[in-house]
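Wed. Picked up where I left off yesterday with Cytokine-like nuclear factor N-PAC. The coffee machine is broken again, so keeping this brief.
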Amino acid sequence: GKLGRYPPWPGKIVNPPKDLKKPRGKKCFFVKFFGTEDHAWIKVEQLKPYHPHKEEMIKINKGKRFQQAVDAVEEFLRKTKGKDQASSHNSSEEKNRRNSSEERGKQAAGEEKRKASLAEGKLKKGTGEGKKRVSSVSSERGSKSPLKRAQDQSPRKRGRPPKDEKDLTIPESSTVKRVMTGTVAGFKWPPSVSEPVKDSDPHFHHFLLSQTEKPAVCYQAITKKLKVCEEETGSTSIQAADSTAVNGSITPTDKKIGFLGLGLMGSGIVSNLLKMGHTVTVWNRTAEKCDLFIQEGARLGRTPAEVVSTCDITFACVSDPKAAKDLVLGPSGVLQGIRPGKCYVDMSTVDADTVTELAQVIVSRGGRFLEAPVSGNQQLSNDGMLVILAAGDRGLYEDCSSCFQAMGKTSFFLGEVGNAAKMMLIVNMVQGSFMATIAEGLTLAQVTGQSQQTLLDILNQGQLASIFLDQKCQNILQGNFKPDFYLKYIQKDLRLAIALGDSVNHPTPMAAAANEVYKRAKALDQSDNDMSAVYRAYIH
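Structure written out below (tokens, as returned):
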């Protein structure tokens, strides 16, 4: 099936962050997996010693990443040689080390001492080929749940594994380097049980991030990709990211959802909201785009004001600052439907001044406001794998939980209104500049007599290798510029990012240069093509 059975993976038991609570149920230890930065709570009975199973596991898994993990184990054991019999590689000590490891395994349920471990958990770092990484760790900055339903007072709490900080920039030393003596390496084993999870989506990441020097804000995550989910019974489950509606792991909110704007991003978002069982009313400036979603079960709203007035939470995803303002302030606009308690979530990528102005007018009418621009493209939107950057009303962010789980793989809460807009522009500035650099390199290769395909092959073997790089290069090599992310919108984002730099007198020369190339591409009628069509700006 989609999940398959994951091979054993080497890991070591480490001290969890001091604020991290153990999941309910059976005895478990906090494990770091070699060759990755993934961590997880693993049950005692799923831990097995490294050396007795080493050769068998190497035969099972021939992958490069696995071999790198084994190499990391050996390096770790060499470094700790002499500190514990578990770290010895000398043949004369091998037997003692193995016996010691096995003995520790028997005693693991009653001790905190670190031991050899084979994790039969559901954890594996993903690769760029669609495998989905799972990891669980929490920062020392705090351990408060991002969702009320996940907090102690919630009757729904399921004893989930700890939250993940794999994607954060906090150094490992701040969380998991406090390793006790006696730590040895082990493998994780394939899952043996698979049961549906009833309440929360086991695949979704939530991050709560401080945007200022406020250390009290905690960093947390719940991973969407493939996730260990432990119920109070101690059973475990692992599910594909797109299987959640079928087995009920997302409980859709009973709030009525509105959605304004059915473009490349909005269409995929609405489709996933409907698939996950949400009640959705849609509106689009060109009404015919609504027809497909009406057939899928959506309701039709005649105006933005009507949608807002009949729904509890209304999302909007439109093209630029002008469109975002017109949608709210224009005739029969969002503002006319706002009354106390109504919620508005703007997912458009706009500048901070625009979103701040919209927030003020919504709140002035008693409404609640959240900005939630998304990082991704049409394909990721269709797959429900967007990255959501949210800021504003924290309670509204939590109320949007099931919606964000349906449409995205990761959600970040960034604090006050404006922060998400700024972060989104910076992300797209980097992406747009990188795209222009890719196009520049491919055209330079061509005019100097080098193979563009060979250049791509070389890049794909190096540190720049990524899905983005490969897909965009393939677009160029195939001459296929069907829009996945409109060129005109990435140019708009570059323009707004440059303005953001201007507002704080910060130089953005790379973005400025890239912006000029995109402007040339627009002059060559590439606006409605994919951003990779910036390539055509370089063709003489």
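Quick read: The chain has a mean pLDDT of 76.
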